[in-house]
User: What shape does this take?
Amino acid sequence: MATQSAVVGRRVLADLIPASAKATTLARDAVLVLGGAGLVGLSAQVAVEIPAISPVPFVATTLTALLLGAAYGPVRAALTFSLYLLAGMAGVPWFTDGNSGTGIVSLGYVIGFLAAGVVVGELARRGGDRTPLRTIGTMIIGNLVIYAFGVPYLIAASGMDISTGLYKGAAVFLVGDLIKLAIAAALLPGAWALVKKFRDA
Assistant: This one.
């Protein structure tokens, strides 16, 4: 039988939002999923396009996806990013620059957000967002998952060769990703420190 500390250790930040009854828990999670998908769509509009460098825009969505994955856990993250992906493919204009559908070369990255959200959510559930060092490791893995889907899709959709695809689909984003890692490494452990402080108060 799991101890209370072990159970608490398997929780993510969203689990700390009070919900007493099953119906309340379902309502809470539904709001989180809908709100999370909307937040991802909103962050996708914060984009800088530099076609000479890459056909993939520089966006805030990567940070949003990784933070949500860690805060939500694997199940809520899967539902959130599935909603974002499927609704966007169906025509909701909340991909970058108000795009939708399946004809964008960056769609692989959106699929990667879904996979990374689940992976990061599971790592966070195991304590991967409790300290800055663990958070950096978790975010690096999440970024690699996004690239694992985004770069091959970009190469296939654009006709680039592999070396060009790796450069324009990954290498040019490394500096920005390092900045996002630093932000996540401050925000997530900081949130847990606040939780501990209020619990101990």
Summary: Confidence is low (pLDDT under 50) at residues 1-8. The beta strands are 47-48, 58-59. The chain is about 70% helix and 0% strand. The CA atoms of residues 113 and 146 lie 6 Å apart.
